[in-house]
Amino acid sequence: MRFPKLTPLQSRFVASLVASIIILVIYYILSNPHTAYAAELDSIQNQDHNHHRLAKDSLTVSSVNRETEEEIAKLQVSDEEKIRAGVDKRQDSPTTLENNVPKNDVIKPSETNQYIVSIPTMFSEKGVQGSGFPSPMFNGSSDQVDNGSGLAQVASSENTEWQTVTNQEGSRKVYVSVTTCSQPLSNSGSPPPQLTLYLSTKSNAGPGNDNIQNITLYEGHASTIYLGTDDFYMAVVPPDVPSSLTSEWNYEVAASIDGFYHSYSDSQGLLLLDADSQSALFVSNNMTGATPDSAIYTEWMDMWPPPLTIFAHNTNDSSINGLQRSYCGLQNSAQIQPSANESGQMVVSMTNRSVGLWGSSPEPKQQFYLNTLNGSSTYHGIMAMNGNSTHSGPRVVHGGGQVWRTMTFNTKTDGNCQLLFDLTQCPNVAHAVPTSPQFLNDTPALANLYDLAAEALFQNFTYSLAQVPCNTTQTAQYSLARNCTDCANAYRNWLCAVMIPRCEDFSTSTPYTQFRNVNPLSQFVTPNPLNSFSPSGQNASIPSNILYDPTYVPMPSAPAAFPFLNQSPANALSANQSRNALAGCGTNLSASTEVPSDANGNPNCGIDFSIQPGPYNEILPCGEFCYELVRSCPASLQFACPAKGRGFERSYRDLGSDGSPLDSNGVLMCSYDGAILNPSNGTANAARRGVPVDRTGLAVGMLVSGVFVVGLGAW
Ligand SMILES: *[C@@H]1O[C@H](CO)[C@@H](O)[C@H](O)[C@H]1NC(C)=O
Ligand SMILES: *[C@@H]1O[C@H](CO)[C@@H](O)[C@H](O)[C@H]1NC(C)=O
Ligand SMILES: *[C@@H]1O[C@H](CO)[C@@H](O)[C@H](O)[C@H]1NC(C)=O
Ligand SMILES: *[C@@H]1O[C@H](CO)[C@@H](O)[C@H](O)[C@H]1NC(C)=O
Ligand SMILES: *[C@@H]1O[C@H](CO)[C@@H](O)[C@H](O)[C@H]1NC(C)=O
Ligand SMILES: *[C@@H]1O[C@H](CO)[C@@H](O)[C@H](O)[C@H]1NC(C)=O
Ligand SMILES: *[C@@H]1O[C@H](CO)[C@@H](O)[C@H](O)[C@H]1NC(C)=O
Ligand SMILES: *[C@@H]1O[C@H](CO)[C@@H](O)[C@H](O)[C@H]1NC(C)=O
Ligand SMILES: *[C@@H]1O[C@H](CO)[C@@H](O)[C@H](O)[C@H]1NC(C)=O
Ligand SMILES: *[C@@H]1O[C@H](CO)[C@@H](O)[C@H](O)[C@H]1NC(C)=O
Ligand SMILES: *[C@@H]1O[C@H](CO)[C@@H](O)[C@H](O)[C@H]1NC(C)=O
Ligand SMILES: *[C@@H]1O[C@H](CO)[C@@H](O)[C@H](O)[C@H]1NC(C)=O
Description:
This protein is α+β, with helices and mostly antiparallel strands. It folds into 3 domains: about 75-260, Jelly Rolls; about 270-415, Immunoglobulin-like (Sandwich), CATH 2.60.40; about 420-470 and about 485-710, no CATH class. The protein has helices at about 10-30, 35-45, 50-55, 65-90, 120, 295-300, 325-335, 435-440, 445-465, 485-500, 545, 575, 605-610, 625-630, 650, 680-685, and strands at about 95, 105, 115, 170-180, 195-200, 215, 220-230, 230-235, 250-255, 265, 270-275, 280-285, 310-315, 345-350, 365-370, 380-385, 400-405, 405-410, 415-420, 430-435, 500-505, 515, 615-620. It has a 5-stranded mixed sheet. Strands 10, 13, 16, 17 and 18 form a 5-stranded mixed sheet that branches. A 4-stranded antiparallel sheet has the order 2-9-4-7, with helices on one face. It starts with 7 loop residues before the first helix and ends in a 29-residue tail after the last helix. Mean pLDDT is about 75; it is low at about 35-70, about 80-90, about 140-165, about 535-540, about 585-595 and about 680-715. The site of one 2-acetamido-2-deoxy-beta-D-glucopyranose has 3 residues, from helix 10.
């Protein structure tokens, strides 16, 4: 066969035409989407992970190099396409979880929600942890926030810790967490049963199948660590409930290679300083053990806003039960919600006020002041952190927040105790003091009263101390062991402890209290609607079985004001008046009121007159404040503590025989500034002081140089 002879131009045209057709054919073959998808769909349905294995075989955790990362990135894209295609075709195929991206889902009884954490997620790039805190939070105290290595408690149900696989080469740790954000309403009062999380290496995770783990959530939270090399599957399954229950659960599930997205810490985070009938004051644990001269200390103190927050909820309402370990659950159910609002329900700040006996720990900590609480109530208090404290939500490492163990606290009843803190003269005071309705909404006026009085007394003490040769050679000093600085410190500590009584309800059942101001004849009682013992401005309604309590233990060897009467709360000065503490007349004197005088004719502007709290209970200060004063100051100042049996017991209470201010149930026996009222076992021990003091050598005596009585004088 002969071809027509072509000119050179024609033959060039034919050649390029043929080439173009071939390119078009190749392009058509390569770009045909049907062929490509058919293969991919098959592969997902048959669990065919050939290409994954190829990629994985070259992977180890320590050698995830640049090329493999690129490879993984490519795989991730194709994987997402696969999943999208799969979801379109099969409603029940598992949802892919991405690193640090929570999935918020709803589930009804008898449904199962499936999730997959696939290799592209497991070997993806780590999330950005950020600069973090000045130092790991709570370093230096027992509580340790999860620092990204998964060593925070893995608590699913109480005391459960779990890890399926031991470390193997090339494996990755995946932190898995689930939190319940809302649960069905329960009409029985007890919370509805909890969801369960199943983990499996097969795609059918769920009840009855071949799971590697199942965890039932506890108080709305479960977390666990998966350690492996291959895809794994999770299922969230609601409990068996009557089919009549149509309600649903709303929850978040998340997987992360950086650390738990939702964290729970089963350690005591929140320490109660005190509460009154409308507010409560807390501190967190030490943020750091760093010393005040370090930059870390300053950075913590200057942190604004402070990193933590709290939720609170009246225990008489059960809607929070079942959600107490879930940040989103608390957001949906707690009555008192986080805010840093200066005028609102919650005021937070950083503080270095000492916590613990003898002002032992001036470390930075966070303070929480909760306002607008109800009186005579019990509350749950739950410390928490929103996200990582500066950021929250998807793609933030720890973005789902952290929750600490719930504590409970009581508010007071009678309305004549009021929280006082951040005083100028007594900076460590942070407890409730006697008050009356006129001060309840004017805390600065109350603080000013105590501050002025303390200042006046301290000033006179300084004059007295100036008579002592302090600035002299060591051998010429009054003591080899103590100097004037020690004396001044001991005086201030003693002054603040005895002058600013720790107030308890008159109606309290707390042990270790001492009646004060139980005076049926007092002219100075402000009507107080909350205090059942002052209904009409007179506390004449104090029942006579209290006033003349036959079980009252008299102090026969003490000098008595009314020696001819049987001692009773009504006539013993230790019970029918306050410590005569506000010697500097405060701002509360109106011109028409006659100022009462003490025995020497000096004006007496004590608590009973200036504040008029009505009857209350006092938790007596620890005797150590008096002993330490006597020990530290020169004998020429003539400080002495009242003797046992002659008044000591009405003014102070000794530490326990183990040197602790707490009894074996953790109840405060004697008051000191910075006492924690809900001590954990750890803090109770930390507050202990080893050396019991020899008290026998202390002289009986009263005081000198304008200082008021150390103990009350008459019984
Ligand atoms: C929180 O995470 C963000 C990144 O998402 C980071 O920039 C920030 O520093 C983190 N904050 C803390 C306190 O770690
Ligand atoms: C705690 O802090 C100290 C110094 O402040 C540091 O040496 C130590 O490593 C920290 N511990 C942890 C677990 O971060
Ligand atoms: C995290 O904390 C644990 C226990 O406190 C410690 O052993 C580990 O070294 C810490 N990891 C990092 C990265 O700080
Ligand atoms: C959950 O796990 C426990 C053992 O860890 C097993 O005894 C139990 O049968 C499992 N429950 C279900 C529903 O798989
Ligand atoms: C704070 O830390 C110090 C030591 O770092 C410790 O002695 C003290 O007991 C801690 N205080 C609390 C309340 O944990
Ligand atoms: C503080 O909270 C109160 C009530 O919750 C609100 O009225 C006020 O606007 C808030 N103030 C600020 C500064 O957020
Ligand atoms: C508490 O912090 C303040 C600064 O915020 C500092 O001036 C003071 O010295 C600190 N107190 C102690 C006991 O370290
Ligand atoms: C819970 O206690 C508060 C007062 O503390 C009261 O006002 C409220 O009615 C109580 N609610 C229930 C359900 O008992
Ligand atoms: C301080 O001392 C002066 C002089 O002795 C006395 O008049 C005054 O009442 C004293 N002040 C107080 C608060 O005791
Ligand atoms: C001792 O001397 C120092 C300075 O030399 C002075 O600041 C201090 O007030 C003196 N103390 C007494 C009690 O005189
Ligand atoms: C007093 O003694 C304490 C130790 O007990 C010491 O730290 C302080 O420097 C002394 N003060 C003076 C002024 O010597
Ligand atoms: C203190 O420890 C005892 C036993 O060691 C335990 O039963 C108790 O619950 C602990 N108390 C607190 C508040 O942790």
